[in-house]
Design goal:
alpha/beta; 8 helices; 5-stranded parallel β-sheet; Rossmann fold; 4-stranded antiparallel β-sheet; 2 domains
Length: 229
Amino acid sequence: MKAHVLLVDDDIELLELLRDYLVRDGFDVACAHDGPSGVTGALSGQHDIVVLDVMMPGVSGLQALAQIRATSALPVVMLTARGDDTDRIVGLELGADDYVPKPCTPRELAARLRAILKRSGSAPVMAGAQSIAAGALTLWPAQRRVEFAGQPLELTSTEFSLLEMLMRHAGSVVGKSDLSEQALGRPLSRFDRSIDVHISSIRHKLGALPDGRSMIQTVIRRGYQLLVE
């Protein structure tokens, strides 16, 4: 079955280039040329993933992302100006699953989309499906579902993949390079703060332990560790 991609960008020429390549590469592609149309399309339930340009007139990509994240965990990839770390970090903090710097090649974008869709693809729900437990956290990989202290924990696709890896290695340190390759589907690049921003978001959603510590500890120059209480 083809994956349904929504491309949102006011650059019509670029949009047509990306659309034509993705269609040839086996995707089903729809396009929107402004923020409001992109939000409507993203929330329509007709798409598996959204590619959202940051720089659009009127409603920007970041504003559109915030509106999408208010009600949906649909995977979102941001198109950002190369070297613009501010927009990139803000996008991740607002819940983007990843970003692709512009100008990008259609091949690079297609590879990034496949990596995210592979992680976020849900398997059929089965009774008694195997779960992973770590302290008050319980995670069901096949269902892409997680509970904290018996309550559902709402995570983006990337956040879920990061937490799953930390839970599978609970009590041990997991390197940032391993987290990047498993959760983002790409090698860790120099000065890339994506993992740090995603981890910060997960920490915020989990809250602090009774002693004030975070459940996810930073281990300097090594990575992150999920505490087992």
